[in-house]
């Protein structure tokens, strides 16, 4: 009897859990619906708690790990008899700041996200089931991404950086960076652009970071712009023109930095933090856009920058991250030329709290 209890605690002959989502596709601010299916094992199980949580891959410098950033208790104490089947329905609100992982059905290279189910049994936690989910952009986010494609920007990659953006109100301890190679009409001035969305129920903070090329006696540096748009504005603007204006305004700030460096009179107003934001519903454009017949963000994401290998590897990573699959992940990273870091994240700075643990691959 004691031996059987020990086996159950180790997962041998214990209860099984299978979480089934009604739809694995969602958007920020929406709800994931599903059922947690439990089946009893060979002995009665005293379940203390059933928890579901959203997990994703977050980078800290050159290293990366898995962070749970949103969780919800879906079941309390219960006794599960041997072979007993039990289903528990749930509705999990998706935080507004949840990063985008797919655009027009194509995975963003570098992004992966899953719904994890945990069973707390006799003071032990079984991380149980893990289901991949796809987070699609909200309409205003989609319009802005499409504008980057129409302007000729080429998608590079996306990732999550742990930290807070100055001047932007965040509720999650990380932010997403969607990186683009510069379009031809900007390539003489900048190398790349990083796009960040910080979303709330009213609208979206759009943060642009332009990697500025250096010149004679002037080192390259980054310049920033921050803009705000409301959700209701999605279909009220020519977003190609708006985004072009944002980019030109942001790039123009470099002239101010250069003037300050050489002691010359200032030109365009110096940015404060990430620049003075436009109010919701009032995005402004500066000068006519230089249009080109780009493929749009859907075609860009589906192209070489994404690659089948990137999608396969992202799915492979998250499916193994909680099952002792570190060696398999490292091997897969080597096969595809990836670099997923390592190091000792432990539980200290990154674990506990409202956002759960941070786990090393």
Overview of this protein structure:
- The chain has helices at residues 2-9, 139-150, 239-262, 296-302, 308-320, 326-336; strands at 16-21, 25-26, 31-39, 45-60, 63-75, 78-80, 85-93, 102-103, 106-107, 113-121, 124-126, 130-132, 134-135, 154-162, 174-181, 190-199, 203-212, 221-230, 358-360.
- The protein is of the alpha+beta class.
- The chain folds into two domains: 2-136 and 305-360, Sandwich (Immunoglobulin-like); 139-292, no CATH class.
- Strands 4, 5, 6, 10, 11, 12 and 19 form a seven-stranded antiparallel β-sheet that branches. The chain has a five-stranded antiparallel β-sheet with strand order 14-15-16-17-18, with helices on one face.
- The two termini are 36 Å apart.
Q: Secondary structure elements and their pairing?
A:
Layout: H1 2-9, E1 16-21, E2 25-26, E3 31-39, E4 45-60, E5 63-75, E6 78-80, E7 85-93, E8 102-103, E9 106-107, E10 113-121, E11 124-126, E12 130-132, E13 134-135, H2 139-150, E14 154-162, E15 174-181, E16 190-199, E17 203-212, E18 221-230, H3 239-262, H4 296-302, H5 308-320, H6 326-336, E19 358-360
Parallel strand pairs: 2-13
Antiparallel strand pairs: 1-3, 3-7, 4-5, 4-6, 4-10, 5-19, 8-9, 10-11, 10-12, 14-15, 15-16, 16-17, 17-18
InterPro entries: Spore_0_M (IPR009776)
Pfam family, one: Spo0M
Protein name: Sporulation protein
Provide tags for this entry.
5-stranded antiparallel beta sheet, 7-stranded antiparallel beta sheet, 361 residues, alpha+beta, 21% helix, elongated, disordered C terminus, Immunoglobulin-like, 2 domains, disordered N terminus
